[in-house]
Amino acid sequence: MEIREEAWKKFRVMINSSALAETLRGRIEALLSPSEIVMLEKRLSILVLLERKTTYREIETLVDVTSATISFVKRHFVKKPTEHRRYSPYQKEAYPTPIRSSKRVAARLLQGK
Q1: Could you state, in order of their start, the residue ranges of all structural domains in the chain?
Q2: pLDDT tens profile 15-46
Q3: What is the pLDDT of residues 38-84, one digit of tens each?
Q4: Phi-psi region at 97: left, alpha or beta (left = phi > 0; alpha = psi -120 to 50)
Q5: In 3D, which of 68, 88, 84 has the Cα closest to residue 76?
Q6: Is 70 exposed, middle or buried (0-12, 13-18, 19+ CB in 10 A)?
């Protein structure tokens, strides 16, 4: 097993075995430096504020982060909608079947279709 994978496994075990919030906080404080804890708290706060539909400008002010950090957190941690893109009826009529090769296109143009 790769060292990183083993480290993440140990971290998950540590979190899962911490029944109380104070125990978990104590273990994280033992593992991370004070500045790392502040950065973790800021990123977790960004997630909460994004869920509340808070604007980027308000998050920047409240949490003291840049818009780039907010975008990073949003891009990597906020669940994206699973609905697939729908095409307009115009596009379906214009291209009823997928075009796979330029030879087919040329043949259709020659046939007048």
Answers
A1: 3-77
A2: 777 667 677 778 788 888 989 988 988 998 99
A3: 898 899 899 889 989 999 999 999 999 999 999 999 988 877 666 65
A4: beta
A5: 68
A6: buried
